[in-house]
Amino acid sequence: MTTVYLNGNFIPLEQAQVPILDRGFIFADGVYEVIPVFSGNPFRLKEHMERLRNSLDGISLQLDYDREKWQSLIDQLLALNRVTGDSSIYIQVTRGVAERNHFYQAGSTPTVFIYCKPLQETDVSRGVGAVLHEDIRWEYCHIKAVALLPNVMLKQYAREKDGSIEAILYRDGYITEGAASNVFTVTGDTVSTPPKSNRLLPGITRDLVVELISASLYQCREVPVSKAELLQADEIWITSSTLGIAPVIRLDGHPVSGGKPGPAWRAIDTIYQDFKRNQ
Ligand code: PDD
Predict the structure, then answer these.
(1) Active site residue: 46, 117, 144, 227, which one?
(2) Nearest to 163 by CA among 198, 132, 128
(3) Percentage of the chain surpassing pLDDT 90?
(4) Do 88 and 121 touch, CB atoms closer than 8 A?
(5) 164 lines ligand 1 (CB under 6 A)
(6) Which residue's CA is the closest to the ligand 1 atom numbered 16?
């Protein structure tokens, strides 16, 4: 039986219900986080909680949960679900229940939901496919908003086009990120990733990978990456909390890095795997 947290209570998943007029349902008026758990330990929790705070501030949603409260709720949830292995925690906060009206309604209490489920890590060791698509999302992609319809459509487009797992997005000729991941390219011994802006989510895995590369024999640059540079790159990687670092070996049906994971991916992924197991 899975236990979840909803608005102050730990209850069975089957009993967790939200009123139909919740603004999360009516307007997708809310934000979320996904935190990986390795061997029972939340990974980079501080960074995820900081990003959640930024997302809440980004949509002016006032919630009086501090760092200690989140930590204690997550600890209790993991204990109640007897999580000792790899898992992922999903947190969603919405602006709560109110009559349908676009204006924020004074006095509505935010809905807070926390859920954990086994981490279904895709085996990326032999590489993954991706497709290119124009970025059709809004201009506040730094906020982890629950309004994911464009992302959902883009991922589905990738799957239906040629069985790919991700759509790599571009805007004005420059790569932004994936529909649910950040993007890196490798040229020689230089790894590049687009700088943080309102056009991409500041990925927690992205930041860690930037840090790990800087301590390796490779160089890391946070610079704009054009579509042309992506197409000529020796290697392309996508990163997220649930994927880790995945080497893209096929882009729009064309092989990348000879159709197999490249040496830079192998080197950095080894460091990442080691880091994550020894946190
Ligand atoms: N998504 N960009 C987007 C649009 C994402 O949705 C995600 C992750 C990332 C990577 O961020 P991080 O490294 O912090 O996971 C980048 C999560 C996994 C999801 O929506 O399920």
Answers:
(1) 144
(2) 128
(3) 96
(4) no
(5) no
(6) 181
For 38-49, what is the mean pLDDT?
97
Ligand 1, from 33, 34, 120: best to mutate by most atoms within 8 Å of Cβ? 34
Q: Report how far residue 201's alpha carbon sits from residue 211's, in angstroms, rounded to the nearest whole number.
A: 17
Percent of the chain with pLDDT strictly greater than 70: 100
Ligand 1 mutation target, pool 86, 153, 181, most atoms within 8 A of CB? 181
pLDDT digits over 84-141, tens only?
999 999 999 999 999 999 999 998 999 999 999 999 778 899 999 999 999 999 999 9
Report whether residue 240 contacts ligand 1, using a CB cutoff of 6 Å. yes
Pairing of strands 128-134, 244-251: parallel
What's the predicted TM-score (pTM) here?
0.97
The residues near 8 (Cβ < 8 Å, ≥ 6 apart) are none
Q: Which residues, 6+ apart, have CB-to-CB distance to 103 below 8 Å?
A: none
> From the DSSP assignment, how many helices (H) and strands (E) are in the chain?
7, 15
